[in-house]
Please model this.
Amino acid sequence: MAKAYWIARVDVHDPERYKDYVATAAPAFEEFGAKFIVRGGPFREMEGVARTRNVVIEFETMEKALACHQSPQYQAAKQIREEVAEGDIVIVEGV
Model:
């Protein structure tokens, strides 16, 4: 079974409150076995429009990746994130 990945590109407008998002999301990530591959860090904009924060999270399966996003724990965190940041998240199946 193929792994799945969350790919998030985010512009954080309130870094202090964003910490609340991270703390609130942590139990969901732990429950569904998330493994952070990329979590911020330096980057180079090569094509298109970049955002200031890039995150790649690996999950064992697409089902776990989707279940994490749909979980009550993550949905609570998402509400915080939407107040303090603007971003895009896609969930993609690996090869």
In short: The two ends are 9 Å apart (CA to CA).
